[in-house]
């Protein structure tokens, strides 16, 4: 035990130092970093005090707002419960010099902060009227954990040395009590226990067994609850049995305030007889449990009137101290206020002791159960049992804070899900990530552990994978959820998505690569974000409520990209929740979409190698789970590979070629390192009905079929021109069709799926060569009919136009100059000359039920259902090319006018280059992707910054205005900003609009001194020879 304590004290210190380094590294210097802190959302500046009042236990509640009036506060991440520091403008940011408090209110215009103590020498009035609020690291937690470990080492004031010996394996766990062993035997033989009554009659057999097991253990019991198995329900039943049946006192804790509040809500709803008290700062509690908080009960109990009077007198004393005109008068009222505060605390402590003693169950966070808090008013042997919920997410050191309060403990959680968040990688590797629950399960196993086996969340197809890979295939889906699907929800129509419980959309071979960001930065994938958006639209279009959909991604950058796309398409991110895996643990939704994000040639998969992270992401879904990812990248992790193989055999696998529309694919290709030729695919709005669930397919069989399909397609490509297309039958599964799409794309063949449901089949063909609307002379009428309805864009080398960092492939009929595209006649003048001999023949050969449409801009032939999207795309490209030509001509004319020394041949050279639009566009492409600073060749495709003055894009080295030639503009802008700040923005109070004469005079003196110094320096310099 001594070695454990010493090691964990060292690990906790490492973790504390890492948090300080991450959270306060910017605070240890000066005010130069204020803007950076504001950008990160951890600092608010230019605040003033709007009001003050006295709260419970003499806390000072101060409300801050913008110093110029009711301006909205900038966007920030400071929320209720955060610890913040208050400092004035110009004050050092060293933590020791800050006045710290807890945020109790956060709105668009106000920030309320509670202070325990306001020393006279550091009063808020002395900090000025222009205050800054900065979010601080919570050092209190580490101090409490260190104290608990030191108390454990000295065994004082530890109540039960036997429990400590069991938890450290010095003594084996004690035998179960005979009474409860009998009940377990009765349950095992399926007989009802006549002398035992459950408060919750709907418990299943595994939950009842867990309750009996926990009651029978004399020292320690572990309730292992996999996702959706009703772990909290079981814990609630156990607490009710301990308190109301056995009349024991229970201390229930959890690592987070959300988890504790969940227990409070469930306990309060289970029995009105139960006396519940929730410890903790009211600012950290949800609204529904405030009535059970200690502060709320204290305010409504007998004797609270006297406490209220003392608080009013104290508030009055503080107010008089603040308005005092002399220091002696101020000290007088400060002394009076401190005397009243002492009396207030004494009276409140007596009431607290009375209230806590009468409670059946007291709830708090792990660190909130500290002996220096309200529990200090209770004797050390007050509690009979400690219940630690979500123990697998708690640092073991934090668990020892409540464990010192009782001779028995019940641990509940799931060590197969996410562990506690640890900032220090070194501390995690050295053992800090190993939780108490995980350690005891590995040592005692079934001796102290009971597993809940019936889950009430997931469709059995979603549940089966985690059950097999993580829970020894022991989970079963309750009949109420085993086969539930999205289509069973009210207002939801029957579509492919609403009838499929498990779907994987594979982006392999689609060029949807992740953004090229530094390895230490977050990751994003624009292509996957587009696919996620398309799938969300499909679900909403089928009638699924936005509030029933959630999106999970392993990276914050990807979460932000998905949120932006949802908002841009009118989908509320307040309803369709988008979170990281860590931010969604313990939650569930009817439909969950996972974006794996990673797609690269190196096969790097980062966070995905954490099995518990993947388990949490997968098990959040109830009726529908859709996963989007690059199978070639993520399958290099064996655990993920097993998930993909399971999905292939038990769900549906779609290629991104089948799923997303052309526009989404082209946009995603702009970030790909290996770009592929353009192709047309039906928009998601047209793909409402895909395929029924396919039968299980063996992976070895799929590999053999891939070789067979590859050979068949290669032979077709080498065959004579007489055979224009090849049709694959509708008997193929979605996995087999995905293989054909991928192979066709690799071989440069056109590929498209036709039909719906069981009639879906694929037509693979060569690219048609056309001239405008005319077919080639060598093409027969029968060939025209046999052409597939969707034709892949021809192979064109120099027809890529890069504008605004987007690489757009333009479909044309032959390898010609883009000038022909720019000069095409308007759609009204184009004519279609497609001669279809027989509709019946067309249906027999192609199997289509729709007509052929010809684009009037580029001449390509497409199915009618793709016409609108393709026409929009061509018109957009035509306009862009015209704009480029016009812009380049204007630049060329300006150059020719300004260069008088050039010869006529030199002046004509840019105009001649305009004739070759292919070369022009290639130069434009390179220019848009390269830093605009003269001589710099760095790429700005992803990390470029646009100058706000010249509107040009520069690399990270040359983005400063002074570096690339915009120094004078920047100087003028800075001068205007300074003048505006000096005279006020005109929107505040009258005092705010008046100029500060003393400040202006001070600045003028500084400016004059600087000018004189510069003049003196120039006079001292000797003239150069």
From TrEMBL:
PROSITE patterns: R3H (PS51061), ZF_AN1 (PS51039). Residues 703-768 form the R3H domain. It is found in: Cytoplasm; Nucleus. It comes from the Eukaryota. GO terms for molecular function: 5'-3' DNA helicase activity; ATP binding; DNA binding; hydrolase activity; RNA binding; zinc ion binding. The keyword Heme does not apply. Residues 887-896, 993-1018 have a biased composition (Basic and acidic residues). Keywords: ATP-binding, Cytoplasm, Helicase, Hydrolase, Metal-binding, Nucleotide-binding, Nucleus, RNA-binding, Zinc, Zinc-finger. It catalyses: ATP + H2O = ADP + phosphate + H(+). It holds the Pfam family R3H. Residues 925-974 form the AN1-type domain. Residues 684-703, 887-910, 978-1025 are annotated as: Disordered. GO terms for cellular component: cytoplasm; nucleus. NCBIfam families: IGHMBP2 family helicase (TIGR00376). Belongs to the DNA2/NAM7 helicase family. This is Uncharacterized protein. The gene is 100633563.
């Amino acid at each position: 035990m001594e070695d454990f304590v010493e090691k964990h004290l060292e690990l906790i210190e490492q973790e504390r130092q890492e948090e300080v380094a991450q959270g306060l590294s910017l605070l240890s210097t000066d005010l130069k970093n204020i803007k950076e802190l504001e950008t990160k959302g951890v600092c608010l500046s230019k605040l003033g005090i709007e009001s003050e009042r006295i709260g419970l236990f003499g806390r000072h509640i101060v409300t801050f707002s913008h110093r110029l009036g009711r301006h909205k506060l900038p966007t920030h991440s400071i929320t209720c419960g955060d610890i913040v520091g208050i400092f004035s403008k110009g004050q050092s940011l060293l933590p020791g010099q800050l006045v710290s408090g807890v945020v109790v209110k956060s709105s668009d215009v106000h920030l309320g902060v509670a202070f325990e103590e306001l020393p006279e020498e550091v009063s808020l009035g002395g900090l000025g009227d222009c205050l800054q609020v900065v979010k601080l690291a919570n050092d209190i937690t580490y101090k409490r954990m260190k104290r608990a470990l030191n108390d454990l080492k000295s065994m004082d004031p530890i109540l039960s040395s036997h429990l400590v010996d069991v938890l450290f394996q010095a003594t084996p766990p004690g035998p179960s009590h005979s009474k409860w062993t009998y009940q377990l035997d009765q349950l095992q033989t399926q007989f009802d226990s006549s002398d035992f009554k459950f408060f919750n009659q709907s418990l299943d057999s595994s939950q009842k067994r867990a309750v009996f097991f926990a009651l029978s253990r004399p020292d320690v019991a572990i309730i292992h609850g996999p996702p959706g198995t009703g772990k909290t329900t079981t814990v609630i039943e156990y607490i009710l049995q301990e308190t109301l049946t056995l009349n024991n006192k229970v201390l229930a804790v959890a690592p987070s305030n959300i988890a504790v509040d969940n227990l409070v809500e469930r306990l309060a709803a289970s029995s009105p007889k139960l006396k519940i008290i929730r410890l903790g700062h009211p600012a950290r509690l949800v609204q529904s449990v405030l009535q059970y908080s200690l502060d709320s009960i204290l305010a409504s109990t007998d004797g609270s009137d006297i406490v209220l009077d003392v608080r009013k007198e104290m508030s009055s004393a503080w107010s008089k101290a603040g308005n005092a005109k002399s220091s002696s008068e101020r000290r007088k009222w400060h002394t009076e206020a401190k005397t009243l505060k002492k009396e207030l605390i004494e009276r409140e402590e007596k009431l607290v002791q009375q209230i806590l003693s009468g409670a059946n169950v007291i709830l708090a966070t792990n660190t909130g159960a500290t002996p220096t808090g309200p529990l200090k008013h209770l004797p050390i042997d007050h509690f009979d049992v400690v219940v630690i919920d979500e123990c697998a997410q708690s640092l073991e050191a934090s668990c020892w804070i409540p464990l010192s309060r009782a001779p028995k403990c019940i641990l509940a959680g799931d060590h197969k899900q996410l562990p506690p968040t640890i900032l220090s990688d070194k501390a995690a590797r050295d053992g800090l990530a190993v939780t108490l629950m995980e350690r005891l399960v590995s040592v005692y196993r079934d001796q102290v552990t009971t597993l809940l086996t019936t889950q009430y969340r997931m469709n059995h197809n979603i549940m089966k994978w985690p059950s097999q890979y993580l829970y020894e295939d022991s989970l079963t889906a309750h009949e109420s959820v085993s086969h539930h699907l999205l289509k069973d929800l009210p207002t939801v129509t029957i579509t492919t998505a609403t009838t499929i419980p498990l779907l994987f959309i594979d982006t392999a071979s689609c060029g949807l690569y992740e953004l090229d960001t530094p390895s230490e930065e977050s990751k994003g994938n624009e292509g996957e974000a587009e696919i996620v958006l398309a799938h969300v639209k499909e679900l909403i279009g089928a009638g699924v409520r936005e509030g029933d959909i959630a999106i999970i991604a392993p990276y914050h950058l990807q979460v932000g990209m998905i949120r932006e796309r949802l908002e841009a398409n009118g989908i509320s991110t307040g309803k369709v929740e988008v979170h990281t895996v860590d931010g969604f643990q313990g939650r569930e939704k009817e439909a969950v979409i996972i974006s794996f994000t990673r797609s690269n040639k190196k096969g790097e998969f980062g966070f995905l190698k954490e099995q518990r992270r993947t388990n949490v992401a997968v098990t959040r879904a109830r009726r529908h789970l859709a996963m989007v990812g690059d199978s070639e990248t993520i399958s290099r992790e064996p655990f993920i590979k097993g998930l993909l193989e399971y999905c292939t055999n038990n769900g549906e696998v779609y290629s991104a070629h089948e799923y997303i529309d052309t526009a989404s694919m082209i946009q995603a290709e702009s970030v790909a390192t290996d770009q592929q030729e353009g192709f047309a695919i039906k928009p998601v709005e047209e793909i409402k009905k895909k395929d029924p669930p396919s039968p299980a397919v063996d992976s070895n069989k799929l590999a053999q079929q891939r070789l067979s399909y590859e050979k068949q397609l290669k032979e077709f490509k080498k065959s004579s021109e007489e055979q224009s297309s090849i049709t694959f039958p509708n008997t193929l599964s979605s996995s087999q069709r995905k293989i054909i799409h991928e192979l066709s794309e690799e071989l440069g063949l056109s590929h498209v799926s036709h039909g719906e449901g069981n009639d879906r089949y694929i037509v693979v063909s060569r690219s048609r060569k056309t001239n405008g609307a005319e077919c080639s002379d060598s093409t027969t009428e029968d060939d025209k009919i046999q052409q597939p309805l969707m034709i892949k864009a021809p192979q064109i080398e120099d027809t890529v136009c890069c504008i605004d960092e987007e690489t757009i492939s333009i479909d044309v009929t032959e390898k010609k100059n883009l000038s022909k595209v720019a000069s095409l006649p308007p759609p009204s003048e184009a004519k279609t000359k497609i001669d279809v001999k027989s509709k019946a023949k067309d249906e027999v050969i192609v199997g289509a039920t729709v007509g052929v449409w010809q684009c009037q801009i580029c001449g390509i032939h497409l199915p009618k259902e793709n016409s609108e999207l393709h026409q929009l795309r061509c018109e957009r490209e035509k306009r862009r090319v015209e704009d480029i030509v016009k812009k380049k001509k204007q630049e060329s004319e300006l150059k020719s006018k300004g260069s008088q020394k050039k010869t006529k041949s030199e002046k004509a050279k840019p105009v001649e280059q305009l004739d070759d639009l292919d070369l022009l566009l290639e130069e434009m492409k390179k220019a848009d992707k390269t830093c605009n600073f003269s001589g710099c060749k760095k790429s700005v495709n992803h990390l470029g910054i646009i100058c706000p003055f010249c509107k040009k894009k520069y690399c990270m080295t040359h983005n400063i205005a002074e570096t690339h030639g915009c120094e004078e503009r920047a100087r003028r802008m800075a001068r205007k900003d300074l003048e505006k700040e000096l005279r006020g923005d005109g929107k505040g109070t009258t005092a705010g609009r008046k100029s500060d004469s003393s400040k202006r005079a001070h600045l003028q003196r500084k400016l004059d001194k600087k000018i004189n110094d510069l003049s003196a320096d120039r006079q001292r310099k000797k003239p150069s020879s």
